[in-house]
Amino acid sequence: MQLTLFLIFAVVAVAGAINLLVQRHPIYSALSLVTVMGALAVEYLLLGAEFIAFIQVIVYAGAIMVLFVFVIMVLNAGEVARHPRSKVAAWIGLPVLVLFGVLIVGQVYGNYHQNTLRMGEYLVQTGPIGQSLFHQYLLPFEVTSVLFLVGILGAVVLAARRDDVTDKKTKSVAAGR
Amino acid sequence: MVPLAYYLALSAILFCLGVAGFIFKQDIITVFISIELMLNGVNLAFVAFSHTLRQIDGNIFVFFVMVVAAAEAAVGLAIIIAVVRNRNTLDVDQMGVLKD
After folding, report:
1. Could you tell me if residue B10 is inside a domain?
2. Sign of CA dihedral A54, B55, B38, B35
3. Does position A158 have pLDDT exceeding 60, yes or no?
4. What is the DSSP letter of A72?
5. Domains of chain B: total
6. Backbone φ and ψ of A125, nearest 5°
7. What CATH code is assigned to A1-79?
8. Range of the structural domain that residue B56 is part of
9. What is the pLDDT of residues B32-77, one digit of tens each?
10. Does residue B66 belong to any structural domain of this protein?
11. Chains A and B: how many Cβ contacts under 8 Å?
12. How far apart are CA A87 and CA A82, in angstroms?
């Protein structure tokens, strides 16, 4: 039962990831990533990580991907025109990447093939996560809030129109005179 | 019953596909989406190990990875908006000011 569910959603996740690479328009890539995230949320539920599964759907697939789709819409992003790139990179890079993947999977399989996971054996509920977050990981949590604040300020500063800012400055200077 | 190795293999495959997207795609937004795909692959490994070792820390790490990903997405997309406004292209190959 668990193996069947795992395999179904693993195939969905990998198919979504491959579709992300194949599609040429960024909006299709973003929607493929939403598919991957939904499939991974089911995998998290199978692993008993309820909290992570739900914030995966709400925060990741909801908030972050809406931000991506919104930026694609604002920039009116379309397909980038194809132009020739380095052939050597493609002919060497792809096999090296495949080799890298095979090596990781082989290493992982060799080291951990005796461990098996059962559904419902270890359930992580929200309560223990909150306990751990506000006791053992309190400092990282607070540092994260500072990181968020700096991130928001940085995003506002970077996305603000420069000419508007200079216009306002010159206007205020002119008004002061 | 699912072997832990299956979860880790899925995680590694998603990570490698993310690396492939990061390297091969020409579109700056898709490059950024590939980074999110890599983060998702790593998160799956964290949760699988958390379940195997019966430790809650893996879930906490995933929480922090998600928070950092959210901050990174906000800043990164703002950078993309600024770059596109200044250079008027989404093509990563045309963004070579430091190289030229």
Report:
1. no
2. positive
3. yes
4. H
5. 1
6. -95, 170
7. 1.20.120.1200
8. 27-88
9. 999 999 999 999 999 999 998 888 999 999 999 999 999 999 999 9
10. yes
11. 233
12. 14
d(CA B33, CA A70): 13
**CATH number of the domain that B84 lies in?**
1.10.287.3510
Question: For residue A59, which of B75, B78, B74 has the smallest C-alpha distance?
Answer: B74
Could you give the ipTM of this predicted complex?
0.91
By C-alpha distance, the chain A residue nearest B40 is A37
Inter-chain residue contact A64 with B70, CB threshold 8 Å: yes
Decide: helix, strand or coil at residue A157: helix
> What type of residue is B66?
M
What are the residue ranges spanned by the domains of chain A? 1-79, 137-177
Question: Which residues in A lie closer than 8 A to residue B81 (C-beta atoms)?
Answer: 71, 74-75, 158-159
Convert the pLDDT of each residue in B67-88 to its tens digit: 999 999 999 999 999 888 888 8
Spell out which residues of chain B touch residue A152, defining contact as CB-CB under 8 Å: 74
**Residue at token pair 């890298």:** A100
Window B:25-84, CB contacts with A under 8 Å: 25-27, 29-30, 32-34, 36-37, 40, 43-44, 47-48, 50-52, 54, 56-57, 59-60, 62-64, 66-75, 77-82, 84
On whether the pTM is more than 0.90, the answer is no
